[in-house]
């Protein structure tokens, strides 16, 4: 069965600094997608970044980038130049191509300090 | 597009009452999901619809829970009778699945349900 593990329940970072959130996953499938979702205090889950497993190049979206290590089954999120608006819960998720079951991690609560 | 729209945003009810949560998915999306989020269990998939048809309801906790999708633009999740342990945030999400490939989920703002 697929699992997604986020081992950091809480993290904090100073404004303008860089922070990395960890995620490991376990799957026996070869074709899958990985995601980071952000859940701010407003509660709505927002897609931050997505990575296709067949792509070696790490995905980037402005200040957000991932370090995708397929062999190690690791998918960390790096936030550069942290902003107060980045304060949120961050969820890592995985879905196997051809299925509909997204597997979510337990989340990391990130607080950006002024 | 307005995104996935859920109502109500908050619902407070007493044990034993019927609760109905509503969801309007993004136009053109063929897949709809209901999730429940709690501190203890995280995000749990309750039910998945594809083209308005329930495909997987194995996550629905009990017979007290039921979900419908009468058309492509509307779905409901009903709890009858409600119990305090049903208190949680309920999310609706939609996606456009192309030949079985789900690339991203679009979530609504959720309904915070409190059963007293």
Number of strands of chain B: 11
As a percent range, the share of strand residues of chain B is over 45%
Q: What is the general shape of chain A?
A: globular
Pattern of helices and strands of chain A = EEEEEEEEEEEE
**Global morphology of chain B:** globular
Number of helices of chain B: 0
Describe this structure in words.
The complex is a heterodimer of chains A (114) and B (116). Helices cover 0% and strands 53% of the residues of chain A. Chain A has 114 residues and is mainly beta. In chain A, a hairpin with a 6-residue loop joins β10 (88-96) and β11. Chain B has 116 residues and is mostly beta strands. Chain B has strands spanning 5-7, 10-13, 19-24, 31-38, 42-50, 53-56, 65-71, 74-79, 88-95, 106-107, 111-115. In chain B, a hairpin with a 2-residue loop joins β5 (42-50) and β6 (53-56). The model of chain B has no long low-confidence stretch (mean pLDDT 92). Chain A binds chain B through residues 33, 35, 37, 42-47, 50, 91, 95, 97-102, 104-107, and chain B through 31, 33, 42-43, 45, 48, 50, 55-56, 89, 91, 93, 97, 100-110, 112.
Short description:
The complex is a heterodimer of chains A (114) and B (116). By secondary structure, chain A is mainly beta. Helix content of chain A is 0%, strand content 53%.
